[in-house]
Design brief:
mainly alpha, 5 helices
Length: 193
């Protein structure tokens, strides 16, 4: 779903940019300022750079904002689940600690040679072991929450690398495919190339 949303968003943005900024007249004007005749390698490079630097920053910014927002929301949901799990485990641990303390008080009141004392001490040992395991689990949950929080994507950290990669790929793609698409469209409508 996120890929389809990104594709649809990119398409809509591209159409809007194309309606606002007429690329062909702009490209012809810029190529003319650089003395590049249409159809030459110099004109193709200028035209590709121009369209890349107009479209790519807008599209990349929008897509990175969308993806970091979606990833952030997803991580927030997972963090909330871990916090709920941690709160439940903390409550269980506190209850078990209270039961262990009560059992210790009961054991203290029983004579040392009483037969039920050994059973109660064994139960207390199991409770303390359970408490230790719960505290270890709580530590692991805290570590997971901290790691997930630190791993949340931050727009300003992701955007520069995404923009650089998108500019490179955008230039290559527009350099290769833009002339082919333009020729096909012009041929379809009977315009000499």
């Amino acid at each position: 779903p996120s890929f389809i949303l990104s594709f649809i968003g990119s398409f809509i943005l591209s159409v809007i940019i194309g309606l606002i900024i007429p690329m062909k007249p702009l490209s012809d004007k810029v190529c003319g300022k650089f003395g590049a005749e249409q159809g030459t390698m110099k004109a193709r490079i200028i035209s590709s750079l121009l369209s890349t630097f107009i479209y790519t920053p807008i599209l990349t910014t929008t897509m990175v904002l969308t993806m970091t927002g979606m990833a952030g929301k997803n991580l927030d949901m997972q963090i909330d689940e871990k916090k709920t799990e941690l709160a439940n485990l903390t409550q269980q641990c506190q209850t078990l600690e209270a039961e262990a303390k009560s059992l210790e008080e009961q054991i203290a009141a029983i004579p040392e040679d009483a037969p039920q004392r050994k059973e109660m001490e064994a139960s207390l040992g199991e409770m303390k072991q359970g408490i230790g395991e719960m505290k270890q689990g709580m530590g692991e949950l805290n570590g997971a929450i901290e790691g997930m929080t630190a791993g949340k994507p931050v727009f300003i950290k992701v955007w520069p690398r995404s923009l650089a990669a998108s500019l490179l790929v955008g230039f290559i793609l527009s350099f290769i495919f833009q002339p082919m698409i333009l020729k096909a469209v012009m041929k379809k409508y009977g315009i000499e190339v």
